[in-house]
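Homework help board

Subject: predicted structure for assignment chain

Our instructor gave us this sequence and asked us to write out the predicted structure in token form, then describe one feature. I got the tokens but I'm not sure how to describe them. Can anyone check?
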Amino acid sequence: MRPFLLERFGNASSIHQEGQHARSAVERARADVSRFLGCRPAEIVFTSGGTESDNLAIFGSVNPGDHVLTSTVEHHAVLHAVRKLGERGVEIDVLPVNDQGVLAPDDVRNAIRPNTRLISVMMANNETGILQPVEAIGRIAAEFGIRFHVDAVQAAGKLKLDVDGIGCHLLTISGHKMHAPQGTGALFVRRGTRLEPLFAGGAHERQRRAGTENVAGIVGLGKAAECAMEGLRNGAPERMRSLRDKLESGILQRVTDAGINGGSAPRVANTTNLWFDHLEGEALVIALDLHGLAVSSGAACSSGVSEPSHVLEAMGLSKERARGSLRLSLHRHSSEEEIDQAIQLVSSRVTRLREVSTVMAR
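My token output:
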């Protein structure tokens, strides 16, 4: 990225030499991302990230009177977009998941109507790592001739992505989940899939996404895709899974009244979500942050009041247990030493917070 941040500032749409140098860099990155997803370069649309890609896939696919299917555990980039469609005359069904956070393909099939236009289901959940049966849902979508969108933001770089194997028409990735810079992303748009642009402007990205290209960010995303493919070939997911399992078992051996949310379901290799009874997750987040460990709990609403995770509530967790849950994520450079430190920190801070809570309760 460095040359395009410090030296080369050409507009990739310009015909002069600097512009064409930028265009070449963008197209090389497009080819890298297309190989990463198993598609044609012309099927890649560069965006500002997962939220924009999700919104482009959803708003660009349906009209008033159409019917859309999604699930209760989707990212807010999908759920809020679908809710907005409902205000515009689109019919919406948000399907429940089981207690492991998995959507049943038969529930999708049974919810299809004559006017169903779009099915949008994530591949891996961003809070729990739980994998959805997207291949089975893709076959159902194909059977009924329905457009299928997959949010693969959390899966990218941890699983091999093959858009033909999934059977999707649209697929979202975000750069920052795979070591590219924040503010970069891409949407796969299968050839022949008509998509109404979100932005009015120039004819960039084959008239699907107006706006001057973020050349440096796109170059970073292309390199990240190349590195992710190398990691997949070299066993990075298996190594992350081994470390994730060590992290879980190490904490649960030391902490009572705790468990794994969705632990019996297939999960992406780098993510775990643990529940701890008798404490507030937000307090644990702060306590761990003070010792250099960055983790997350439930989402915070605009008022600043911590709310239970909608994902965990959809899985049937009580508000108290959902508030006492914690997400921990690894990446392909995580070390054994870091896992050992995290085990010690989490177990000691949980014990300490429970002791404080007990004293205050008296």
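Reply (TA_rk): Your tokens look well-formed. For the description, you could write something like this. The chain has two domains: 2-232, 236-361. That's the kind of observation they're looking for.
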